[in-house]
Write a structure and sequence with these properties.
Blueprint: H1 3-8, H2 13-17, E1 22-24, E2 32-35, E3 41-44, E4 49-51, E5 56-60, E6 66-72, E7 78-85, E8 94-101, E9 107-114, E10 118-122, E11 126-128
Length: about 130
C-alpha cells in the first residue's frame, strides 16, 4: 500500500468505477441521534443511508486523524458552515462543508453535495437518545 493510499483511505472499487452506489440503510425505527456535547437532536435512525454498501465508514484525513462516520440522508438541528470543496473529499464527486451542532456549535461532521447529497456525522460525536439519561 502506498503512502497516499494509507493517508487518504478514500476510494473503494465501486467509487473508482464511478458506480452510483446509494441506497437507504436497512435500519428501521425513528430513534433519535443527539449531539454528544449538548444533547440537541440532530438525526434519526430511519435517515441512515448506504453509500458504497454501508452507512458506516472509517476514513483518515490528511493530518492523520481517523474518523468513524455514519451517513444520513438528512439531519435537523445542524448548521452547514463554509463553502463546499472537493479538496480531500472522501466521496468521489461530492464536495464537503462542515456540519456543526445548531445549539452548541460543536463540529459533528460534514455535509456532502454533488453526485449524492448526504451528511456524514462523526460517530464519537453523536449518541443515541435511548442512552442519554434525561
Amino acid at each position: 500500500m502506498t503512502e497516499k493510499e494509507t493517508i487518504w483511505e478514500i476510494e473503494d472499487e465501486a467509487a473508482a468505477k464511478g458506480e452510483a452506489d446509494v441506497a437507504p440503510a436497512t435500519g428501521t425505527g425513528g430513534e433519535r441521534w443527539l449531539c454528544a456535547f449538548c444533547h440537541q437532536p440532530v438525526a434519526r435512525e430511519g435517515d441512515l443511508v448506504n453509500i458504497h454498501g454501508s452507512s458506516e465508514h472509517t476514513f483518515t484525513n490528511p493530518a492523520g486523524i481517523k474518523f468513524r462516520i455514519l451517513l444520513f440522508a438528512q439531519v435537523a438541528g445542524c448548521l452547514n458552515v463554509g463553502t463546499p470543496t472537493l479538496q480531500f473529499t472522501w466521496f468521489s464527486g461530492c464536495a464537503w462543508s462542515y456540519c456543526v451542532c445548531g445549539q452548541c456549535r460543536a463540529h459533528l461532521g460534514w455535509f456532502y453535495t454533488g453526485l449524492h447529497d448526504f451528511v456524514a456525522l462523526i460517530r464519537e460525536r453523536i449518541v443515541r437518545a435511548s442512552l442519554v439519561n434525561n
